[in-house]
């Protein structure tokens, strides 16, 4: 019988049955569709020998007036500048109210038995938590130490433990071999600005409600005397109702609170303690008390306006709560440009600037006081920021009603500066500063600059924000509902069309909100962990007209799958759109930057089990590493150390059957041979033919499969018999690439049984 040609429609279909989707593909990994045909994706290579500590979640390119190009990478711990093949640390220090970097005069002691180093801040409470990052300056090692000053001076460390509110430990890069017991080492400690946790998780509560815990009012008493911050015994008027061991809140009430306030009435100066002893008397004592627990600070308290309350199910910053609807978002950045100046905002935190035009730019950190571009008059707490590209207003989203008062943050409030003045937010008749509260939703999730508008999403709706001039400056219009954004970085725009992922589907906006028909929708949303939406990252690859979303499933703390929508495949339209998916761990990205400043896409990949090499010198635990890649180069993955990891790919078809006058599938088919039809074939690939007698049966490989095919292969002889057949194409080794054409096979009817 003559050769028959079987054509497959572009894209992956996971919505239909194996028989209903005849002529389509059912699964793929590291495969894209171009001109309607599947091909292996291009490779990628590391741009820097170093790897970043922490998970990168934002990427932004900036060009100075001399034409120098930079990439700014925001991780959960650092703000990093990439320039000409190197990383530079530009992370801002934690600042006081006047924008000056905090510096703590400290002593430190090394330990002969291990690499642990204890730093003491004297009588000053440091307020640190495990995992915080600090910079040591003017370091002098203790007398008798064999460790050089250079091990600590101008070095960055992760805090490993916090024994008290005035001490913390770090890990030395080398082992102490001297006396190691003296405490006369000295240094200045500069804390890094705290960005946030690596992952988005339910049940993180520090700063949420009353520190995210539960107060049980049945065990409540007042202090029976004054306690100092260093006391390890807390004297109560009556300790009989308290547990033998447990957690308690020493609550300093806000002014004007009632004698028995709800938990929300406790002031931020309240202190959580744990204890292991109780005299169970009236009066009584809680004994063996550990002070300043769960991120609080030890306080000196008096009986006046102070209540001690039993606390249960208590968690602090970084500790998970069981069964709660409170979510702590991961550490995120907003990055945008004001000319040569980088505007960097920590999500739900402060705004900083960094001037790429500064001659000393690579040795200068982002700061609230950077040359002429100060941000000390900006809100201290905003969900995100954006510079309007045409009008040059700095816009804060989900920000403070009263600037400088973080507790006044409103998740639906937008505040914008005077034009060309990023520090002036005073609303006057003679300027263009202003504010606006959105109505639909509970919080602003994201905003991007589009062709004619700024698009602003809440968790339920889409608004356009358009410059209209005096007296309102910006006009706001709600253009969609039930189409909210799932995460800050889950929306992109290209050629006047925005694409985004919501909790309930994919959408586009070209002047009208449109639902994107999706042939893999159930596969994505049945498995995606939408509670971790702030970790989802979207990126445009205009070289291949693709929008990709990388997302986490419920089985992973981090992104572990991706889904692609090809917005440019209009030459071969399909009813459900041109979509494809992947699960290859090497292909998962946490940031993506399309071609513009650079000719190839740049992206970051995260490994939670490996240790980064920059910028911490030693002791990091549980921070993971991010690798910075250039994409669409070569055929494989080139790692920071120069080694190569094979980029494997795979695509699987649905079943196809022999069509006769009696219909499809009436007769068994017999396949005697097929002709490979590939373009740009490099190296060996494998083709597997599988058959089944009935739709409900699992497919089994034919006797001779899989078949190895290369550029010299002209035909493949096989013996395949079944009512239905399917096709799989894959490559498993390095240096391999392929593009599939059509499937030509010798198919003959072979009976009805």
Structural description of this entry:
With 753 residues, the protein is mainly β. It is built from 1 helix and 63 strands. Among the domains are: 3-41 and 648-749, Jelly Rolls (Sandwich); 104-191, Elongation Factor Tu (Ef-tu), domain 3; 202-312. 1% of the residues lie in helices and 42% in strands. The strands form 16 sheets. Strands 5, 6, 47, 48, 49, 50 and 51 form a 7-stranded mixed beta sheet that branches. Strand 9 and strand 10 form a beta hairpin. It is globular and about 100 Å long. Mean pLDDT is 87; it is low at 203-217, 253-268 and 314-326.
CATH class of the domain at 3-41 and 648-749: Mainly Beta
Mean pLDDT: 87
Strand content: 35-45%
> Count of helical segments?
1
User: Any idea what the radius of gyration is?
Assistant: 30 Å
Query: What share of residues is helical?
Result: under 10%
Q: Characterize the quaternary organization of these chains.
A: single chain
Number of strands: 63
Q: What's the overall geometry? A: globular
pLDDT below 50 for ≥5 consecutive residues: which ranges?
203-217, 253-268, 314-326
Name of the CATH architecture of the domain at 3-41 and 648-749? Sandwich
CATH fold-type name of the domain at 3-41 and 648-749: Jelly Rolls
Distance between the termini: 20 Å
| Secondary structural class | mainly beta
Q: How would you characterize the largest beta sheet?
A: 7 strands, mixed
């Amino acid at each position: 019988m003559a050769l028959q040609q079987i054509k497959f429609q572009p894209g992956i279909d996971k919505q239909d049955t194996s028989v209903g989707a005849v002529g389509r593909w059912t699964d793929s990994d590291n495969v894209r569709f171009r001109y309607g045909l599947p091909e292996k994706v291009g490779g990628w290579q590391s741009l820097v020998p170093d790897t970043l500590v922490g998970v990168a979640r934002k990427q932004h390119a900036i060009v100075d007036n001399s034409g120098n190009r930079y990439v700014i990478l925001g991780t959960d711990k650092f703000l990093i500048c990439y320039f000409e093949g190197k990383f530079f640390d530009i992370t801002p220090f934690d600042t006081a109210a006047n924008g000056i970097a905090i510096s703590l005069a400290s002593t430190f002691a090394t330990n002969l038995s291990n690499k642990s180093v204890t730093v003491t801040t004297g009588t000053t409470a440091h307020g640190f938590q495990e995992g915080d990052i600090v910079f040591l300056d003017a370091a002098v090692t203790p007398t008798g130490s064999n460790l050089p000053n250079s091990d600590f001076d101008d070095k960055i460390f992760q805090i490993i433990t916090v024994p008290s509110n005035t001490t913390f430990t770090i890990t030395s890069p080398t082992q102490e071999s001297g006396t190691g017991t003296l405490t006369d080492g000295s240094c200045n400690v500069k804390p890094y600005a705290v960005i946030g946790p690596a992952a988005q998780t339910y049940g993180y509560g520090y700063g949420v409600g009353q520190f995210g815990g539960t107060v049980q009012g049945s065990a409540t008493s007042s202090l029976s005397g004054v306690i100092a911050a260093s006391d390890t015994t807390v004297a109560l008027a009556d300790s009989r109702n308290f547990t033998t061991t447990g957690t308690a809140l020493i609550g300093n009430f806000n002014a004007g609170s009632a004698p028995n306030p709800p938990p929300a009435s406790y002031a931020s100066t309240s202190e959580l303690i744990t204890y292991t002893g109780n005299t169970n008397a009236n009066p009584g004592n809680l004994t063996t008390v550990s002070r300043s627990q769960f991120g609080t600070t030890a306080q000196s308290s008096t009986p006046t306006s102070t209540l001690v309350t039993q606390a249960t199910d208590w968690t602090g910053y970084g500790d998970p709560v069981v069964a709660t609807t409170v979510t702590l978002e991961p550490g995120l950045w907003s990055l945008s440009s004001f000319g040569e100046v980088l505007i960097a905002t920590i999500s739900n935190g402060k705004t900083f600037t960094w001037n790429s035009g500064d001659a000393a730019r690579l040795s200068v950190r982002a700061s609230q006081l950077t040359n002429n571009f100060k941000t000390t008059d900006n809100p201290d707490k905003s969900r995100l920021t954006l510079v309007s590209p045409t009008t040059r207003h700095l816009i804060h989203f989900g920000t403070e009603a009263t600037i400088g008062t973080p507790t006044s943050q409103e998740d639906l409030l937008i505040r914008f500066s005077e034009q060309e003045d990023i520090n002036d937010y005073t609303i006057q008749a003679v300027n263009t500063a202003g504010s606006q509260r959105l109505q639909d939703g509970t919080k602003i999730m994201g905003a991007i600059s589009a062709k004619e508008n700024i698009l602003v999403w809440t968790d339920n709706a889409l608004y356009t924000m358009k410059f209209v001039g005096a007296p309102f400056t910006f006009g706001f219009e709600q253009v969609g509902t039930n189409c909210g954004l799932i995460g800050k970085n889950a929306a992109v725009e290209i050629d006047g069309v925005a694409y985004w992922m919501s909790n309930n589907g994919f959408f586009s906006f070209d002047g009208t909100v449109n639902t994107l028909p999706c042939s893999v929708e159930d596969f994505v949303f049945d498995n995606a962990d939408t509670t971790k939406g702030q970790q989802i990252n979207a990126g445009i690859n205009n070289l291949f007209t693709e929008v990709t979303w990388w997302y986490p499933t419920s089985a992973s703390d981090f992104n572990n799958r991706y889904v692609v929508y090809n917005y440019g495949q209009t030459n071969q339209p399909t009813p459900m759109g041109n979509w494809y998916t992947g699960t290859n761990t090497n292909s998962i990205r946490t940031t993506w930057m399309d071609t513009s400043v650079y000719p190839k896409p740049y992206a970051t990949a995260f490994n939670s089990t490996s240790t980064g090499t920059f910028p911490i010198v030693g002791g990091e635990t549980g921070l993971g590493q991010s690798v910075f890649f250039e994409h669409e180069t070569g055929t494989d993955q080139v790692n920071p150390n120069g080694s190569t990891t094979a980029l494997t790919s795979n695509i699987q078809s649905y079943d196809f059957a022999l069509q006769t006058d009696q219909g499809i599938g009436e007769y068994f088919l017999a396949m005697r041979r097929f002709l490979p039809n590939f373009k740009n074939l490099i190296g060996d690939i494998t083709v597997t033919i599988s058959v089944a007698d009935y739709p409900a049966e699992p497919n089994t490989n034919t006797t001779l499969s899989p078949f190895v095919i290369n550029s010299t292969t002209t035909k493949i002889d096989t013996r395949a018999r079944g009512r239905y057949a399917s096709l799989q194409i894959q490559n498993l080794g390095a240096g391999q690439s392929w593009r599939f054409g059509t499937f030509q096979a010798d198919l003959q009817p072979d009976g009805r049984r």
